Amino acid sequence: MNNQDIQVTKTSIILTTGIYDLLKEQIKKKKLNRLNEEKLEIELKNAKQVLNRDLPNNVVTINSLVTVKDLQTSEEIIRKFVSPQKARRKNGTTSILSAIGIATLGYAEDAIIQWELPEGIKSFQILKVSRLT
Asked: Among 71, 110, 111, 116, which residue's CB has the most CB atoms within a 10 Å radius?
């Protein structure tokens, strides 16, 4: 499947205020490449901010178990997103500020997203989101 054939989800992302501020900080510190920075700025401009208790359970946030499908390869990837301080490869956890973490933050199940990763622009569909306890 070609990236040009993929219909990216156009809905606004939903974030808690804390995650919103964390993402703004990533832009301020120039932690992203230019393409992702521009995309994230647009997403944040249109983002809906909610209290943690009002965040729908099917939206990617910190402390989420997320299954995404790479739309080019059909590979399914499962990630446990945690805070950067708690991310440990040996525990099978991934920082919410990793490339795939930032790409999926605020999107709900079934959303299709594109993000530039080290290996190029990738398209993903979020298949399942659940909260870690």
From this structure: 111
What distance lies between CA 19 and its chain's CA centroid? 11
Which helix (H) or strand (E) element contains residue 27? Answer: helix 17-28
Instruction: Tell which residue, 46, 41, 34, has the closest CA to residue 10.
Output: 46
DSSP of 56-108: -TTB--TTEEEEEEETTT--EEEEEEE-TTT--GGGTEEETTSHHHHHHTTPB
> What band does 118 get if pLDDT is binned at 50, 70 and 90?
confident
CATH of the domain at 16: 3.10.50.30
Q: How far apart are CA 65 and CA 79, in angstroms?
A: 6
Whole-number mean pLDDT of the chain?
A: 90
Report the domain count for the chain. 1
Q: pTM score, two decimals? A: 0.89
Residue 67: domain span: 3-131
What's the token pair of residue 25? 């900080």
Q: Look at residue 119 and give its three-state secondary structure.
A: coil
